[in-house]
Write a sequence for this structure.
């Protein structure tokens, strides 16, 4: 009888352990769900205009009008176009042709491609991932879009005392824990070389490792000039990796880029 008592007392009470494990899993899942909800709530559904931008320093797109039609009315060079100038003469030639055509109300037909469509699909995932990783430093994040996905604002803040020759339709911006506004630019790629260049930049600050990274670096510097912001976040989704590059505004660098744009404009 004593043996039976000892044996029974040592038998595992599986039903209690099962309930305990189940409760732990439920609690963890609930905590994860609350964390995700908290992160998502930091992304404001209404695209808000950047502060300290005068009425003459931005263009607001109409969500009910075809975006391609509205693009034609933009006379300024785009920030991404400026970035492309620095990766080869072919891009410079194309940009010069586009400027001439725009001057006579003509343009090269816009061509969509798989890479661009893929980028648009991954963009929302990238926003969520950025907030998930850097949630502790984000008060609220604003996408520069309407609910239907159409871009909302194109910025061209005066550079010094001159009108800005460049306009930038940024991906988004956020207010950090110090109450300061920061730019967010998202890029999606599968390039191993680009991944290496991104890692190199974060280690050494070298933005010349890869011509495509240099293109994006120029784009962000120009976007900072167009928005008046001091800090940009160039956030990459490359394969299975999410990597952010913090880019501080470099006015000396921007001045050289602007000088080049002025020269190009004077020739067109």
């Amino acid at each position: 009888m004593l043996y039976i008592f000892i044996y029974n007392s040592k038998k595992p009470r599986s039903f209690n352990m099962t309930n305990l494990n189940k409760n732990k899993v439920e609690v963890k899942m609930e905590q994860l769900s609350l964390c995700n909800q908290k992160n998502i709530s930091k992304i404001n559904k209404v695209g808000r205009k950047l502060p300290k931008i005068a009425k003459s320093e931005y263009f607001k797109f109409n969500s009910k009008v075809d975006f391609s039609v509205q693009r034609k009315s933009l006379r300024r060079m785009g920030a991404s176009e400026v970035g492309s100038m620095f990766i080869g003469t072919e891009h410079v030639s194309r940009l010069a042709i586009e400027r001439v055509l725009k001057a006579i109300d003509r343009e090269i037909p816009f061509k969509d491609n798989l890479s661009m469509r893929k980028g648009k699909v991954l963009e929302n995932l990238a926003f969520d991932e950025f907030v998930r990783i850097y949630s502790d430093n984000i008060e609220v994040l604003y996408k520069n879009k309407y609910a239907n996905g159409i871009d909302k604002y194109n910025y061209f803040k005066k550079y010094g005392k001159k009108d800005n020759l460049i306009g930038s339709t940024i991906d988004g911006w956020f207010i950090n824990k110090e109450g300061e506004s920061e730019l967010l630019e998202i890029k999606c790629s599968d390039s191993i070389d680009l991944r290496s260049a991104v890692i190199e930049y974060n280690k050494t600050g070298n933005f010349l490792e890869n011509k495509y990274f240099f293109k994006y670096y120029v784009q962000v510097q120009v976007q900072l000039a167009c928005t008046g912001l001091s800090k940009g976040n160039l956030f990459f989704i490359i394969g299975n990796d999410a990597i952010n590059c913090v880019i501080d505004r470099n006015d000396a660098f921007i001045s050289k880029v602007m000088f080049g744009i002025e020269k190009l404009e004077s020739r067109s």
Notes: Residues 108 and 188 are 25 Å apart (CA to CA). The mean pLDDT is 82. The chain has nine helices and ten strands. The chain has one domain: 54-267.
